[in-house]
Every structure is written in C-alpha cells, then in structure tokens.
Specification:
heterodimer; A: mainly alpha; globular; B: mainly alpha; 3 domains; flat
Chain lengths: 191, 184
C-alpha cells in the first residue's frame, strides 16, 4: 500500500511540476501516468471520467486523481486507504502549485524577457497542440470505439458519433455537454 | 473575518460554480477580489491570470495558489488551495462510491459507449483550434508532430519530452541566440 501511495505521489507530483501546455494538453500527462504507465484506470474509464468532469467542478486532472487512487486502493485495502490515497494525490498536485506561486512572482521578469526564457517558450509553445493530439490518439482504441473485427456495429456507430460531434460542436457550435448527452442517448438506443 | 478565511470561502464558492470548466472560476473570483473587496486592481489580476496560464500543472490549483498569495501571503495561498480542493474532494468521494458500480449497469454501459467517441472528438477540436492559433510554420511543425508521435503512439512520458525541449531551448537561448543577433 505504501508503494502504491508513493507512486501516486510521484506521478501527480510530476504532473503538478512539469505538466505544461494548458488544460487539454494536461490530459496527455494524466493519461500517460494513470492509464499507460500504471494502469490505474482503463482507457474507457478515463474517457468516462472526462465525460463526467464536464458536470463536475475542477479540471479533469483533479477528477481523475481521486478516481485512480480509489480504484487502485479501495478494493484491496478498504475505503480508509482509498481516502488516504486521494489525499496523497491531491497533496502531490497542490504542493507544486504552492511552491511555484512563491517562485514565479520573484522570477517573472527574468523568465519572460530574457534570451533564455524566450527561446524556451518559443520551443514549448508549438508543443501544446501536439500534446493534445497525443491525448486524442491515446483515446482512439478499441476500448472507446469498439474493434472493427470483433464488433463492427459498435465501431461503425462510434465513428459516426465521433464525426457527428466534430461537426456539431466544431461547425455548428453546439454546447459540448449537449453533444455528449445526445451521443449517450444514441448509444442507449443503438446498443 | 480574516483575509485567509475570506479567501477560503471565495474560492470554495467559485470552485463550486465552475462546473465543467476550471476557467469558469475566474470570473467569480475576479468579482470578489477586484470589484467587491478591492484587494487587487483589474490590471494586476489580468497580469497574474496570464502568468498563471503559462505555468505548468493544474490550472485551478495554480490560479488559487497565485491569487491567494497575492491577497494574503502564504496563508492566503493555502486557504485558496483548500477552498479549491475541498469541494472537489467531497464531491469526488461520493462519485467514487458509485462510479465503478454504476458503469456495470446495462443502460449506463450503452449510454457511455455512445459518449466515449464524443469525448474523443471534444479533444480533437481544441487541438485543431489551438493548432490554428499558435502560428505553427514549416520550421517548427516538427515539435507538435514529435510530441504526438512520442507520447501518443510510442507511449513515452510527456514530462521527459517537455524537459528535453526546455533544456534544448535553454542551451539555444544561452549560447546560440545572443550570437546571431545583429550587433548595434
């Protein structure tokens, strides 16, 4: 249990310290730690957390952290341990924010208007859409879309709903939550 | 009421109001801190906000820690972080108890099966939007492509990638860039 708590601490500390690129790029960091590296949540569970976090306060990272901790600790060690794990994960995310808020105020000038600061930012800035793309690629698997060989019906419907959401939210500017509920109802009807 | 407990309550209320999008907490915090309490000017708040957006980590937490520190020193920072985390903690604790069991339910399962492709599409959209806005040219298009390839397909940690790129940028800014500027 201590080992699990320690890797929760380490994972979310990394995200809090180096998770650069904005809320959507952060998805790739969280997915890497929670799904790819440690397997605390499956890819489908992570997608469900992302949907759920649209109706919960806070970032996806803040919603995924407790669910991952609960998932890995509650079954084996009980609810008390799971709550401890959630506290550990939140602390690991909050401590870097606290420390950075102390440092950034002091180094702001030196960071933003120097050769070093500018060239670091000019290289990091274009990374952000790439990291969001990575988060999307990590989600595009049989877990979330169904496999074309095993379940062609689900795969076809998933592709349709995917394109429908792209068009509906991207072109017609429907509210994301509206598209999510609509696709959920379609799933209810079709599966 | 002391500034710390007031800060705590401001962030508690704003976080609860920021359903679905952590940026939604910005407006109520600004209203409380700038307009009603007068703890900061509007310009200071805007400058802090743009700084917070360039910081690594979770936006909601950086925002709380930073604004909290501005209005009440390190105590304010802790108070704002607590105010942000406490409602999320309470709500997620309840969600945890139901989430994994509910997912097994037949109706919920087919509902979620429909939702997942939509969720993926809602990640692709901001990627396209941000890609258009961030002035990617032929000379730096390798950066996002490399990020998508390494992290999305090869499963490498984005942390190492960002650190490597930042280190490269540091070397460039420290040793190369000063020399290729035209001398006055």
């Amino acid at each position: 249990m201590l080992i699990i708590c320690f890797s929760l601490l380490l994972s979310f500390l990394q995200i809090g310290l180096f998770g650069w690129g904005g809320p959507f790029a952060l998805l790739s960091y969280v997915q890497h730690e929670v799904v790819v590296e440690h397997g605390w949540l499956t890819s489908a569970e992570f997608a469900d957390v992302m949907a759920l976090s649209r109706v919960l306060p806070g970032d996806v990272a803040l919603d995924a952290a407790p669910l991952a901790a609960y998932r890995v600790l509650a079954g084996e060690y009980g609810t008390g341990a799971a709550i401890g794990g959630i506290v550990v994960a939140f602390t690991a995310l909050a401590v870097p924010a606290f420390a950075l808020s102390a440092l950034m105020g002091r180094f702001r000038e030196r960071l933003c208007s120097s050769d070093v600061g500018e060239s670091i930012l000019s290289l990091l800035r274009p990374m952000s859409p790439g990291l969001i793309a990575a988060a999307a690629i990590l989600l595009m698997n049989a877990d979330n879309f169904g496999s074309p060989a095993i379940n062609p019906w689900q795969f076809g419907v998933s592709l349709f709903l995917f394109v429908a959401t792209l068009v509906g939210s991207g072109y017609y500017r429907f509210h994301p939550l509206f598209m999510i509920v609509l696709c959920g109802l379609a799933g209810l009807l079709l599966y | 009421m002391s500034i710390s407990s007031d800060t705590f309550l401001i962030f508690l209320r704003s976080t609860l109001a920021s359903v679905g999008n952590s940026y939604a907490a910005v407006a109520p915090v600004r209203e409380a801190v700038v307009l009603r309490r007068g703890w900061m000017t509007d310009d200071e708040f805007a400058a802090d906000l743009s700084l917070v957006q360039a910081m690594p980590g979770v936006f909601a937490l950086n925002f709380g820690a930073h604004i909290g520190r501005r209005v009440g020193g390190w105590r304010g920072s802790v108070a704002a972080l607590m105010g942000t985390l406490l409602p999320v903690f309470a709500i997620l604790l309840v969600v945890c108890f139901f989430f994994f069991n509910l997912r097994e339910h037949a109706a919920v399962r087919s509902f979620l099966q429909g939702v997942r492709p939509a969720v993926v599409a809602l990640v692709v959209l901001p990627c396209i939007r941000l890609g258009r806005r961030s002035r990617i040219t032929l000379s730096n298009v390798w950066l996002p492509v490399m990020a998508a390839l390494f992290v999305g397909i090869m499963g490498l940690s984005p942390v190492w990638l960002v650190l490597a790129v930042a280190f490269f940028g540091y070397l460039y800014g420290r040793y190369v860039r000063p020399t290729d500027r035209p001398t006055p």
